[in-house]
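Handout, section 4.2: multi-component inputs.
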Amino acid sequence: MDGKPLGTQDYSRLIVAVARHRDRAAFSALFDHFAPRIKAYLLRAGTDPALADELAQEALLAVWRKAETFDGARATAATWIFTIARNLRTDRFRKEWRDVPAGDDLPDTIDETAAPDETLSDAERGERIRQALRQLPPEQIKVIELSFFEDQPHAEIAQTLGIPLGTVKSRIRIAMAKLRDIVGDLS
Amino acid sequence: MRNRHHPSDETLAAYAAGTLDPGRRVVVASHLERCAACRGFVRGAESVAGVMLEDLAPAPMSSEALARTLARIDREPVSAAKAVAARLDEPDLPACLRPYDMGPWRWVGPGVHMRPVLVPETGKMRVFLLKGAPGIRLPQHSHEGAELTSILAGSYHHEGGDFLAGDFEEADDNVEHRPVVGQDMACLCLVALEGQLKLSGFIGALLNPFVRL
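Output:
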């Protein structure tokens, strides 16, 4: 790839190219874009840098292995890859106990009956979420981010943000209601 | 049929984010298997998390990372699909329990049995199946922390309402309730419990030494 920025739509296509043609160039482009972001996600979750690097490679290997199961009509490339990274993160401990394929205990959260609006493209869905997030006050985005990425108990979030525990709880409540609005607008 | 009691939005968002401990996660997963509404919310939260992932400032990978991953791809067998042996020895248990070993059923009181689910790395959470005979009043209990309950079969009710198969109950500490199992059939629940279960009352005092899950 020549370093030109790709739209999200193209990342879906790259995954499909990996699935259909075992396309190594497409895979490399996916790696260049997503591996550093997965590493950043894992670092924010408190993973040490060497392990984060290793797990990000592991996540992209899972993208290669599972590419056939990707359905661009139901999830964006970023969402699908996020769930892979998330499952790796949560399965990391269990893997030390027993070799169970990543994510195997998670139910299929892709719903058969309620497919998302098919007329909404991958990129459009992402853009809609971005717009909704932009309308939230920064402190609410911060709370959603902390709860998504950093696994902090309320008391620690209070300390990080320097606000009382009660305020954290009410902000989380409000942020979750906003999240529900955003999610509702997607379907 | 629509479920009436669901996990809180925060719990569902934490599930989507992957920040729930394995004990809570498996109990929430058992609810998601039966609840389309909660699956929809989790899927939406995953989309939001996907956007946030895209927008994170990238952390540079080690220099050999791509080359090493491509080398591993070359060693991949053509089909890597690996079936997990089913471990479930009783029917109708949720699929999310498949990866875990379970202990034996234990008698913990008149009409009440528990069976530990061996979920590693759950910290202070214990996960177990709880079965109550029809009409039985479960021993009055309180707990030291959160208690998540997913009702798999049958029903129970207490001061907080009626809980039917497919429902989910999330209780924090200081809650002291005494559920009564529905008359028509036994009630089977999957429970994640933080800390020790404390049984109160006369029977509870007798049983407490034995309830070590």
